[in-house]
Amino acid sequence: MNQYITSLTRVIDAPTATVVVGDEEDRDFLAELTIGAVATYLALKYIDGLVDGIGIGDLGKKHGAIIKTRITELWAVISNRPIQTLGLSERLDDDSKIISTCMTDLKDKQSLAAAAAAEEAVSNVLVQRGLPPAVAKRKAKQLAEVLWSGSN
Hints:
mainly alpha
């Protein structure tokens, strides 16, 4: 963006942008939805890496297929410019339930190696998108801590 547009974006905050482009029925904040979509995508990548790292038969098959499908679908949403927010809030609610179920089911199956594989899966995505490796690893570890603390 040029300097003029950058200056204007400091004036137009997320709530203002939401009022302008959101419909009257569903005015979720655009920035919150976008961040929520990215966080959900990374959480699903973590679970995918965890399932691969654990290598657990039926449970892995049960979660693996749905997780891979949701990852692909959500990437299509968040990689589209501009991000399409219509129905995204409901979609993230559904994904949140899937994440919660997976984390609960995998809680007793986790190992250090599986957790490391899951964190590496997230870190790799972040590095591929441009984050420095040290920052990507830190973010992946923080994401894992949040996911595991929510499954208690």
